[in-house]
Specification:
The protein is of the alpha+beta class and 430 residues long. It folds into 2 domains: 95 residues, Nucleic acid-binding proteins (OB fold (Dihydrolipoamide Acetyltransferase, E2P)); 301 residues, BirA Bifunctional Protein, domain 2 (2-Layer Sandwich). 30% of the residues lie in helices and 28% in strands. The strands form 4 sheets. Strands 7-11-12-19-18-17-14-13 form an 8-stranded mixed beta sheet. Its EC number is 6.1.1.22.
Amino acid sequence: MKTTISEVKQFVGKEVTIGAWIANKRSSGKIAFLQLRDGTGFIQGVVVKADVSEEVFQSAKSITQESSLYVTGEVQEDARSPFGFELLVKDIKIIHDSVDFPITPKEHGIEFLMDNRHLWLRSRRQHAIMKIRNEIIRATYQFFNENGFVKVDPPILTGSAPEGTSELFHTKYFDEDAYLSQSGQLYMEAAAMALGKVFSFGPTFRAEKSKTRRHLIEFWMIEPEMAFYEFEDNLKVQEDYVSFIVQAVLENCKLELERLGRDTSKLEKIKAPFPRISYDEAIKFLHKKGFDDIEWGDDFGAPHETAIAESYDMPVFITHYPTSLKPFYMQPDPNREDVVLCADLIAPEGYGEIIGGSERIHNLELLKQRIDEHGLDTEAYKWYAELRQFGSVPHSGFGLGLERTVAWISGAEHVRESIPFPRLLNRLYP
């Protein structure tokens, strides 16, 4: 019976064949232990000299790290294993001998590991993080599909930018200027006017010369947009969504979280509703914490967000930022023209902002005024303004950065581990 490691629990006491790679091994005189991986998981194969042919035992002793093979054996329960099962090996058929695999079971420098990212992905830690990423993606589709959202795919090549062009990658689109998308939001607003509640899930690009543990040049965004949803409605969707994906990972990635040494008690607390603090309150709080350099109207940096987050054991919304700090499309607070109806969601444990969202301006004249104030090309945004000309309604949306969310939930220190092939400042290889 041919199967996978993740499915062996169905075959306890039976003989199965698994296509696998050798992650590691050790042997004594009469027994060899093979650490096997097949992409679905890891399992130990035990080869007892007395139970196999001399040829099979010698293969088990001499096989090298990352060699590929078909291994046949009996599935046994093993309470000592985190996985709960092991394979009593009967036969080995080597597919390919791996020679001098560069990532050995020892400490390696980060640049070396990044140069070998295509191979580093095979490690237990990276495997666990990628499985958690996959579960967050699966749960994202489940959440929005179950809540009446329609998946819409905005373009990656755009002729305009939602937040200006200073941090965009420029390219030529035949004889026109074009940019790699930094957000699908504007297009999602158009889709929401057609379909009500929509979400996108795709790559976005920021030509931002940052080298922090929170920044990538290319990353993935989940961007819902909702017609007839005002500011409070928007926050409710955000906290329900984040709670849903955290609980999904806790339920379906127990082994991966354990492998990463993640303190799951912190994740178990993540349930809506989330605490809130206004920008005004945040400034006062930071002054009390000794951040005398920050003034009203300044944006928050990583140290400021971390200080605020440390006061809570849940994600926290920072709401009502100054109008001057935020993009042109955000709806002003009806009671205060100097702040907008927006919120950033800050993850606990120093992982920073994972969501930015707002109610959008739905008044045509105000939007035109904001486009002018920001010095944007009126003609390029003509289609966007027309959304307010033909049946405008209050609407809201947000964007969640997948990689920061993966890093937070998995406990990874740097976002470079939360995407298969990270694009960082000065790194485009492999």
